[in-house]
Structures are given as structure tokens and as C-alpha cells.
Specification:
Length: 172
């Protein structure tokens, strides 16, 4: 019976959308998770995946060496997800207008309650031709706000593409 409970919880977890504020259709897509190993501790609500972990749900794609999912003890919904790797990567189409957002870092923390993704350690985030790089980047999936911080005597790097409409008007 205990093995059935573990299997049931893993199946239930796989049915929950990880990041709900991107394309609405993503939440309705099946989740495909691959890993070399998966463990679930019912008492704590912690599920750990290790070894070449990949998750896909619609436009969402996560790749990591290890992934830990913390569930809310009362309703088993996802509270947070932590992905680690060299680097761990995340990508998702945020909206049709904003396009694809890609992030990579040594550690990616996703807070399902606030909708904030924190990339830590050699962090980089790109979207719509712009990029942000630093030691830590906080990205609000709900608001689209980005905060980048440097560390270790380095500086934050921001790169913005040229505005082609302005450049083309200036040429005419």
C-alpha cells in the first residue's frame, strides 16, 4: 500500500502545472518528466528527481541535474521548485507578444505562490532580444519585472537590441 501511495503522489504531482502564468494552453498540456531517479517523502511532501532531469509541459522546458519539488502539506499543490545543474535551464513562451524567455543558472528557484523565478550563480535571462546577466536574477512571471544583481566584484550586464523602427525611420 505504501508503494501505491508513492506512485499515486508522483502521478498527482505530474498532473500539476509548474508555471501557470505563461501561455494558458501550457497548463492544459500533459507534463512529461524524465529522470534517472525519483523519490517522494509523504511526511514532508518533498519529491526529488535526480540524474539528467527534463520536464516538458507545453512550451515550458526545464533541464537540470537535480530537481526538488516542495508540496503544500494540506492540499499537495506545488509550493516551490528548485532545479540545480551546470547549468540548470528553463524556457517558456511567456505570451504571444513577449515570446520565449530563456534562463540558465547553477540554481533556479521557482516560488509557485509569488510566481517569482530566482536564478543564482552565473545567471542569465534572455527575452525578446534583451539579455540580463549577473550572479542573481529575479524574474516575476506574473508582472514581467526583472532584477539583476552582481556579486564577487563583477557587474550586472544588460543588453538591449536596437529599435529597428527608429533606425529605419532615420535612414529614410
Amino acid at each position: 500500500m505504501k508503494n501505491f501511495n508513492k506512485l499515486f503522489c508522483l502521478i498527482c504531482l505530474a498532473g500539476m502545472p509548474l508555471i501557470a502564468s505563461a501561455l494558458p494552453s501550457d497548463a492544459n498540456q500533459p507534463i512529461r518528466l524524465l529522470a534517472d531517479r525519483a523519490t517522494y517523502v509523504e511526511k514532508t511532501g518533498v519529491t526529488t528527481y535526480s540524474g539528467n532531469v527534463t520536464i516538458e509541459q507545453g512550451t515550458l522546458k526545464i533541464a537540470a541535474d537535480n530537481l526538488t519539488v516542495n508540496l503544500n502539506p494540506s492540499n499537495r499543490s506545488i509550493n516551490s521548485v528548485v532545479a540545480t545543474g551546470r547549468p540548470a535551464t528553463l524556457q517558456q513562451v511567456v505570451s504571444q507578444e513577449k515570446g520565449l524567455a530563456k534562463g540558465q543558472a547553477n540554481r533556479i528557484d521557482y516560488n509557485a505562490v509569488t510566481g517569482i523565478v530566482t536564478l543564482t550563480g552565473n545567471a542569465k535571462l534572455t527575452q525578446a532580444g534583451s539579455s540580463f546577466a549577473g550572479n542573481t536574477i529575479r524574474y516575476s512571471l506574473k508582472l514581467g519585472d526583472v532584477e539583476a544583481n552582481a556579486g564577487g566584484g563583477q557587474r550586472v550586464e544588460l543588453v538591449f537590441p536596437p529599435n529597428t523602427e527608429i533606425n529605419q525611420r532615420g535612414v529614410r
